[in-house]
Amino acid sequence: MLTKYKLVIFDWDGTVMDSVGRIVSSLDEAARLTGGLPTLSGDELKQMIGLSLDKGYEFLYPDVSLDKRDTWKAHYAQQFREDNPTPAALYPNVFETLNKLKEAGYLLAIATGKSRVGLDRAMDETGTAELFVGTRTADQTASKPDPLMIHELLDSLGITAADAVMVGDTSHDMLLANNAGVDAIAITWGVHDKETLSAYRPVAVIDNIESLLSI
User: 1 falls in which pLDDT band (50, 70, 90)?
Assistant: First the structure.
């Protein structure tokens, strides 16, 4: 199935990197430090993963004034980058699988809700930057599920929508692919389960990234 595509676009958090725990605990602490925000469960907090922080704040706290958003964002950034000891690393076999896909001739790209600074730092720490021919972050372009980040990747690489596929772990990723007119492959080791992801009609649902090599 994968051989019909030229470009494989990956989400980052929950798809390439096992960072869900660090994100959720950072969101929880950011809300506590900001004050005046509703207490949300870990499951509720992780539903925003994949969105930009601006979109994520509105998603999590639709009835709270935007006046607190910048303070909350600053606390989250400090927690995720510096203060939170929760580990975040590539999922098992991600680096090896990405290398095999590149060696097989696929173009690889990233479309993420992370900031530019955050993605650059993550790619530098994991040694993955050279694997990707293009990346788009939520502060460079429109946040998921707006299709702009995929459209920009396709335009910059000269790839048609029919020749690209999006790999992601959330409903936001699946909607992004649907809105951009590209196929999607859902992966279940991140935020959302098979039942949730299947509702968006991905061409495949996989449990780990190395399964891309055999579909």
Answer: confident
Q: Are 165 and 180 in contact (CB under 8 A)?
A: no
Q: What is the pTM of this model?
A: 0.95
Q: Hey, what amino acid is at 119?
A: L
Burial class of 205 by CB neighbour count within 10 A (0 to 12, 13 to 18, 19+): middle
- Amino acid letter, 198: S
As beta bridge partners, residue 111 has: 136
Is the pLDDT at 20 greater than 90? The verdict is yes
Q: How far apart are CA 160 and CA 151, in angstroms?
A: 9
Nearest to 20 by CA among 96, 73, 71, 89: 89
Q: CB-based burial of residue 152 (10 Å sphere; 0-12 exposed, 13-18 middle, 19+ buried)?
A: middle
Tell me the one-letter amino acid at 89. Answer: A
Beta bridge partners of 137: 112
Give me the active site residues, please: 11, 13
